[in-house]
Structure formats: structure tokens, C-alpha cells
Amino acid sequence: MIAQRGTRPSPPNAGSNATALAPLVDIVERATRGVEELSTPIPGLRLFRRNSITQPSYCFIKPSLVLVLQGVKQMVVGTATYVYDTSRFLLTSLEMPARSEVLAASPDAPCLGLNFQLDLHTITELLATGSLPDPRHAAHAQDEKNKDARPASLTQNKELEELRSMGIGEVTPALLDAVSRLLALLDEPAAIPTLAPLIQREIHYRLLTGAATAARLRKITSIDSQAHKIAKAIDWLSENYAAPLSIDALAARVQMSPSSFHQHFRALVAMSPLQYQKRLRLNEARRLMLNEQLDAATAAFEVGYESPSQFSREYARHFGAPPKRDIATLRKHSTSQTS
Q1: Contacts of 276 (CB under 8 A, 6+ apart)
Q2: pLDDT tens for the 339 residues of the chain, in order
Q3: Which pairing describes strands 45-50 and 57-61: parallel, antiparallel, or unpaired?
Q4: Half-sphere exposure of 64 toward its Cβ, with a 13 Å CA cutoff?
Q5: Which domains does the chain have, with CATH numbers?
Q6: Spatial CA neighbour of 123 closest among 42, 223, 226
Q7: Of 69, 196, 199, 282, most Cβ neighbours within 10 A?
Q8: Residue 34's CB: how many other CB atoms inside 10 A?
Q9: pTM (two decimals)
Q10: 136: helix, coil or strand?
Q11: For the region Disordered, what residue ranges are annotated (predicted)?
Q12: Which residues contact 196 (CB under 8 A, 6 or more apart)?
């Protein structure tokens, strides 16, 4: 479900999977008591819990499947809002800056869920077998059949949505069964090294054969695709965010023209490369101040800013408060969560 910024979409129907989700809810509820985020012994699997509705918070979400087991969440990227709950999951195929918000949660019924990080090597390996059914063929045939009856604006919107690196998919019984078996391993830690890789591979398979997710994942691993080239550019930006950015040089690095690079980057990430770099810098500076106790000026220089005053202005514009006040608020919130 996608809505324009500034509107609050109605949550989708969240009750259809309630029975199947009950054991998963129990596992996550027990594991996350007293914490909001929890890394698990299963590589790439994190659990989350929110006991109340939250205001939008900025985050960088890695290529991953985000599944809500109880409650309702939404993610805002650019002008698009993605609402997901127990019947719809969120999938992103690139590392994306976004705003996350909990729409339904309470102490008695907290918002519970998981973040399953995608492994592009596994995706590429599965695609290389050539034996995966491609759900796009049936969808394409149906689209061609209905194309003449569909307004041009809707066709363009559908093509743009398919290009974006974030989207919503339906939680199917097959996907839910695989996730259920993966979570059950948290109560059987000795089996994790042997069984977790098999189930993780199955989850990737389910996503690669899902009508709403296959196209995104296939594009990001296709070496000759524009999405793959943008992914390489994002990898470079993530490692070199403090360095001066030349759009021409970065476009050349991924073998694209500057105009094509800028166009496809904005289409996939919903912002320009310079805006993406700025968000990387601001998020890293926030982490340095919060976790490593750096002052604002030192953090600013560490992430590539030459002017502390410019850093403070952009930080306040992005996070809604100057660095010192924002960090104090975050620490107060963290203390209240653990007390």
C-alpha cells in the first residue's frame, strides 16, 4: 500500500494470519522483553519490539525482508509511504534511508517483528541454477492483456513502482512456514549452524518466486542492469561517505553516464546521490555522538563536514533538533527503556 507523504493510510487487514502467527509472536515476545532491538544467534536475523505507537524515526535499512508479527508499521521513502502488518511484508533491495513509524502497538499488544537481511550471494546463486519459476511471465502476460484498457498514467506509475527498490508483498503460507521454522531454532540453538542456512536459502527462494518481489531482486543481481550499477555506487558511498563526492567520477566508476546515473539513482533511492551522502554522514555522526561520546564538532569533521555550524544546521533540519539536544533525548529514552 502506497500513499503520498502527508497522508496516513488506513492499516491493511491484519487478522488473516493470526492463528499461524501465534507461535511466532510467543517466541519474539519472550525474546524481546525489556529491549526494542535484539540481534539473534542466527546471522542476519534481528527482532524488534515497540510497546507504543511511535513518531517517525530516521534509519538506514539494509537489503532485507521486514515482517510484522503483531501490530502495524510504516516506512516512508521520499514521497512514498509503505504500510505493512501481518498480511503484508516490506522488502528492500538496496540500503535505503527512510523514516520508520509504528502505527499500532500497546503494552498489552506490542508491535513485534523481525528483520531478515538478504544475502545477494545466495540470490545470485539461486538465479544461476536457471530452474526457478519466474512469476513475472504470468504477470507480464496479464499486463499485456489489460494494457489497452489501462490509462497511460497508471502504466507509468506501475513501471516506476517496479523500478523502486522498496515495496510491499503478500505474506504467503509458504513464506510464513519457512520463517516460523527459522524462529523456532532460537529455542534450539545447537541446531542453528546446520539448519539455519537451509531455511534462510528457502526464504530467499520464496522471495525470488513471489509475484511482488521477484522483479526487484532479479534486477539488483543482474550485472547488466541499471539497478545493479546503482547498488555498486551505494556500496562505494557507504564506504567513502566522508570523502568529497564527484557525480561524474562515481558515474564513471559504475559505467554510466552522469545523466543516466542521476536519473536511475533518484528513481531507485528516491533522492539524489548528494542527498544520500548527506544522510549517510548525518546518521554516522549521530552514532558517533551517541555511542562513542564524541562532541558535535569532532563528529562533524569525522564524517566529512568542514564547517561545524553547517553540520549543526543540517543535523537539526534532518533530525528535528540540534545535535546536543537530540543526543540527550536519545540517551534519556534509552535509559527509560532499560530501567
Answers
A1: 97, 234, 237, 265, 269
A2: 444 333 444 444 445 577 889 999 999 999 999 999 999 999 999 999 999 999 888 888 889 999 999 999 999 987 889 999 999 999 998 888 899 999 999 999 999 999 999 998 898 888 887 677 766 554 444 444 444 444 444 444 444 455 577 889 999 999 999 999 999 999 999 999 999 999 999 999 999 998 878 888 887 777 668 888 998 999 999 999 999 999 999 999 999 999 999 999 988 888 899 999 999 999 999 999 999 999 999 999 999 999 999 999 999 999 999 999 999 988 887 665 554
A3: unpaired
A4: 18
A5: 2-220 (2.60.120.10), 222-271 (1.10.10), 275-338 (1.10.10.60)
A6: 223
A7: 69
A8: 9
A9: 0.77
A10: helix
A11: 134-156
A12: 42, 43, 182, 185
d(Cα 36, Cα 58) in Å, to the nearest integer? 15
**DSSP state letters, 268-314:** HHSS-HHHHHHHHHHHHHHHHHHHS---HHHHHHHTT-S-HHHHHHH
Burial class (CB in 10 A: 0-12, 13-18, 19+), 98: buried
Q: Which among 268, 336, 333, 310 has a CA at the least distance from the CA of 55?
A: 333
Amino acid at 84: Y
Percentages (nearest 5) of helix, strand, coil residues in the chain:
55, 20, 30
Determine whether 121 is exposed, middle or buried from the number of CB atoms within 10 Å of its CB (0-12, 13-18, 19+): exposed
Q: Which three cell numbers stand for residue 11?
A: 492499516
- Length of the chain, please? 339
Which of 43, 23, 20, 36 has the alpha carbon at shortest distance from 116? 43
